[in-house]
Amino acid sequence: MKILLTVAAVIAVAVMVGAWRAEIVSFGNGVADVASGRAGDRLEERIDELVPRIPKQPGKNAWLTSVNASCARRNAQIAAVHAPRGGLKDLRRYAGQVLAVQRAHARDRRSIATPPGVARELQFMALADKQTEMALKRVIAATSKPDAKSAERAVAMFESTSRMTSGGFRTLGLSACASLA
């Protein structure tokens, strides 16, 4: 029974990690080893050879989960902001509220304890925060003028910034952070 469970576990793990490979495993003396339990011990000794190790980064994985949760809260808060119905004044109100949510989110996200090995993610998020804030400020400034074309350009720039940063967030495993637009 121990052998069957061990073999089933090896197969399940190999299939899960996409590393299935057929290999004949010698069980030594066959029935005698099975009866004594020794065959299972040999197989357990070979599991490391049969199934490649998956690098575990429990601190980083927990951090990614926390950051994604923070971004999901931000997304819900932005969804709760009434979308502009028309006019520059309404667009300015909307951009101002989204900017406030984004700033609070950035503070919240920075308060999450960071494990070692996330420097690249932190640098990217800092840059994305800065670019997003600048783009929203441009929308607010452009909607303060009576020129609708300036507002359209500022909105297009914000959307472009959002698309650019979304790809980076997805690459880093932060899919909930991927789009603010």
> Major sheet: size, sense and barrel closure?
none
Based on CA inertia axes, which overall geometry fits?
elongated
Beta-strand content bin: under 5%
Please count the beta strands (DSSP E, at least 2 residues each).
0
What's the mean pLDDT score?
76
Instruction: Decide which structural class fits the backbone.
Output: mainly alpha
Radius of gyration: 26 Å
| Helicity range | over 70%
Task: Give the oligomeric state.
Answer: single chain
* Unreliable runs: 1-44, 50-54
Supply database-style keywords.
7 helices, 71% helix, disordered N terminus
Summarize the structure.
This protein is mostly helical and 181 residues long.
Descriptive account of the structure:
This protein is mainly α. Helix content is 71%, strand content 0%. It has seven helices and no strands. It has helices spanning 2-16, 31-36, 38-50, 58-80, 88-110, 119-142, 148-171. The longest helix is centred in the C-terminal third of the chain and has 24 residues, at 119-142. Residues 1-44 and 50-54 have low confidence and may be disordered.
SSE layout and pairings?
Blueprint: H1 2-16, H2 31-36, H3 38-50, H4 58-80, H5 88-110, H6 119-142, H7 148-171
Helix pairs in contact: 1-3, 4-5, 5-6, 6-7
